[in-house]
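Methods: example folding runs. The two proteins below were folded one after another, and each record is reproduced exactly as written to the output file, sequence line first and C-alpha cell line second.
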Amino acid sequence: MIMININQELLNNLISKAKLSPRKRMNYNFHNEDADPLQRMLNAMEPGTYVQPHKHENPDKREAFWVLTGKFIVFEFDDFGRITEHTILDAKAQNFGCEINPRVWHSILPLETGTVAYEVKDGPYVVAIDKNFAPWAPNENSLERFEYVRKLFNEVNIEVPDAYLV
C-alpha cells in the first residue's frame, strides 16, 4: 500500500482544474473503482457552481463533508424544498464538517474561491441511481439555477457571492 498524501500541491492542482471546468468544480477520487463500498474524494468547487438538491435513497447512503480550504454552505431541505437546516463549513471559524443522513435532501455551495471539501459517501457509485434529484429545484444546466441559489442565500441571510449574480 502507498500512503495517499493530501497536500497543498494536490489542492492547488485540483483548484486550478475546477476554475477551468465549465461546471466550476472538479473531483479527485481516492477510491479505485465505482464499486468500492466507501467512496472518498476531494471536491474542489468555485463560486458559480450549482449542486442540485438531491438525496441518496434506494440504496440509502450517508455522506460527510470536511472543509480543507475556503468555505461552503451545506443546506438540508424538507420534501417541499423548504430549508430545514444549514451550516457554513469554514476551518477558520472552526466549523470543520458535517454528515448528511440517508434520505435527506441536501446541497452544497461554495462561498469563496479555492474551496475544497473532503467528501466520504457510502458506495458503490452507480450513476443511474446515485442521486435522487429534487423535483422542486432547477436542474444543474438551467438558467433558473442562479435565481434559485440567490433565493437560498437570501433565506439564510448570507451575502450572495458575485458569481451567482449572473
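Second run, written to the same file directly after the first:
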Amino acid sequence: MKKPTVAVIFGSRSTEHDVSVVTAIGSVIRPLELAGSFDVVPVYIAKDGRWYSDPQLKDITLFSNGKLQTFLAKQPPLSISFDNGLTLIKGTGLRAQKIKIDVAFPATHGTHGEDGELMGVLEMANVPYVGCDVPASVIAMDKVLAKIVAQANGIAITKFYAFAKNEYEASPESWHEKVNQDLRYPVFVKPAHLGSSIGITRVKTKNDLANAIEVALHYDTKALVEEAVENLTEVTLPIIGNDEPLPALLEQPLTHAEDFFDFDTKYMRGGKKGSQGGGKQGAQGYSKIPADLPEKLATQAISVGVQTYRALGLGGTARVDMLVDTKAGKVYLNEINPMPGSLYAHNWQQAGISNVELVTRLITLAQERHAARSSLTTSFQTNYLQQFK
C-alpha cells in the first residue's frame, strides 16, 4: 500500500520565518519520518514568497550555514495545481515533476501562513490539512478579535483599547488620553496579529506609551493596549482535538513579572532571562510542567483553556495562553497560538504522548475533519442561469 504523501509547509513572508523552519524540521519532519508511515515532502516558502521543494530542505544545516540562497538559486520554484486536490509541480515541460499531496501539514508561524491565508489555499485545493481552519486561524491570530469572541462567551479578559494604524495616526493624543484615563499602568502594547512576542512592550508610565505604540504599529496595522495583571503567574496550555479537545499539561514559563516572555527570552537565550530553579528547557525556554499553582486554580485555568478552544472553534492543535492573578484567584485569557512553536512537543512528551505519536494524531485529526466536511452538501442544482439565455 502506498504511503500517504504529507507536505510539510514552512517558512513564509513572516517575521517568524526562522522559528517556522525550526518547528518544521525538528518537530514535524523528523518525527513523521521516524513514524515510517508517510512519504514526507518539505515545502519551503522563502522570504520573497516563492515555494520550493527538495529533500535537502529537510536538513537544518542548509538554513544555518549561510548557503541557502545559493542552493535556492539553482532550484526551480514550485507551482501548484488544484486538480481535485493539491499537486506540486517542480520544473516545466516534459521533465516537470508532479507530486500529489494527500495531507498538508502547515508549520508556518505568523502572517501569510498561520493567520489563515495558507489554510484558505488548502481549503480551495480540497486537501486535508493539520491545524485550525480558516475562521479559527483568523480569529486566533487577531488578538483583538480573540478577546471580543472570548468575552462574548463569558471568558475573562483584561481591560484594553485597540485601534487601527490610520485611526491612531489621525489623533494620537486622543488615544493616549483614553488609555491614561481608563487603564491602570503598567500596560502592555502589542501588535494585533504577530506571535512570538514580537513588537510587544511593557510600559510602566504614560511617558513611554507613544514610543511603544509606534513600535507595535511598525509591525502591524492594528495595535492594542491592555492592562497588566497583578500578582501574575503566566500559564499556557497546549491542546489537540477537533470536537473533543484534549489538553496537555498546564505549563508555566519561568520569568519574573517584569521580564515578560519576549522573543529574546523564548529563542535567543534559551529562556534563561528571569528563570528560576526547578524548570526544564522546552522548545521555548525554561518552564515548569505542571505549573506551580494551587490545584483549584490550575483546574480553573485548564477549564478556561478548553472553553476558549471550543468558543473560538479551534481544531487540530492550538495553544491557549492565560494570565493568573494568584491573589484574586482569577484566570484571564491572554492570547491564542493556532500553531504552537515546535508543537510544544516537550509538554506533550511529559503528558505521555511522544513527538511521533503527536504528529501522527494530528494527521488523523486532519483527515477526520476533512472527511466530515466532505460529507456536507455545498452545492445544488438550480434553473437560475436559464433565465439569462
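Comment on the second run: DSSP finds 13 helices and 18 strands in the chain.
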